[in-house]
Specification:
By secondary structure, the chain is α/β, with parallel strands linked by helices. The chain has 2 domains: 202 residues, 3-Layer(aba) Sandwich (Rossmann fold); 84 residues, Alpha-Beta Plaits, CATH 3.30.70. The chain is built from 10 helices and 10 strands.
């Protein structure tokens, strides 16, 4: 396939380029200033002229685009607009303009980042842009013409970038070579509208655990009776406990409610007491230690 790789000389881009070349793809490597082919993706005009010169292609991967960082109270409106113009609208325009040049059945792969979901200090502009990119991709996938696919890779902090960007809170760094495997998935698999999370493994030192709680309806009570018990026990004030995060909360028909909550490990007793004091009398309860299997599943797909 003829694949355009924007940002091929970057840390992630060079790892992607190596794998695409090894797979036998024809690669057009594009960078801001280095190399032979240059493109400033913050310029809509430049993108149009680039496509006119490059001609038809089968796929495009963008591992480029800049955004500002800094304390929130030091950022001005122009800082946010510059970030939007480069990393956000630069990639959006690559898709909008590129739809007129890409071959039917082709693909676009964009890049966002973990800050769309997990916070860090001095990164509010990056978080804004990353979240917007994820939202753009999952919605644009519904409207792409000629069976063209669009996906996005969201990396966490790279091992190679620690000296410049610092550590990602709560996660180990991830190697660029491993991140590149997620981009290859978008080339080789017929996926569309997906956010591929190339995140480092959770840091065990954060001491967060997940518990899944089955709140089984006591079937001698109707819904009003259950609500009266919960109101009387102040369940909503007791649960969720402080410093916890609700991961999911579902109704399982025939059972009741199933809640998965993430808590600091030392707060397990507090969680148990909150359920005993707040939920008993309305629900029979069961607790199950839980972990996120998706990273294991994704690693298996990448390394099969």
């Amino acid at each position: 396939m003829k694949i355009i790789l924007i940002g091929s000389n970057g840390t992630i881009g060079s790892a992607i380029a190596q794998k695409l070349k090894k797979a036998g793809h024809s690669l057009l490597e594009v960078n801001l200033t280095s190399g032979n082919v240059h493109l400033d993706i913050s310029s809509e005009n430049a993108i149009q002229k680039f496509y006119e010169k490059a001609g038809p292609f089968d796929g495009l991967i963008c591992a480029a685009g800049s955004a500002c960082t800094g304390p929130l109270d030091s950022l001005e409106e122009k800082d946010f607009y510059n970030s939007i113009k480069s990393k956000l609208m630069g990639q959006v325009n690559l898709v909008i303009k590129g739809n007129h040049f890409i071959n039917p059945g082709g693909f676009f792969t964009l890049t966002s980042g973990i800050l769309a979901e997990e916070p860090n200090y001095n990164k509010s502009a990056l978080g804004l842009v990353n979240g917007a990119l994820n939202g753009f991709v999952i919605n644009a996938a519904l409207e792409m013409p000629n069976k063209v696919r669009i996906n996005i890779v969201s990396p966490s902090i790279l091992l190679e970038s620690i000296p410049e960007q610092g550590q990602c809170p709560g996660r180990s760094p991830i190697e660029a070579d491993h991140v590149a495997l997620h981009y290859l998935r978008t080339v080789n698999e017929k996926i569309n509208g997906e956010v591929l999370r190339a995140f480092g493994k959770p840091d065990v030192n954060t001491e967060k655990i997940m518990m899944t709680i089955f709140l089984k309806h006591q079937q001698d009570k109707n819904l009003k009776d259950i609500r009266d018990v919960l109101d009387g026990s102040s369940f909503k004030k007791l649960f969720p406990i402080a410093d916890s995060k609700i991961v999911s909360w579902y109704v399982m028909m025939g059972i009741g409610q199933v809640v998965t909550v993430q808590i600091p490990a030392h707060k397990l007793q507090e969680l148990n007491l909150a359920i005993e004091k707040g939920a008993w009398g309305a629900f029979n309860t069961e607790f199950y230690a839980t972990y996120d299997y998706m990273p294991v599943y994704e690693d298996g797909r990448l390394n099969k």
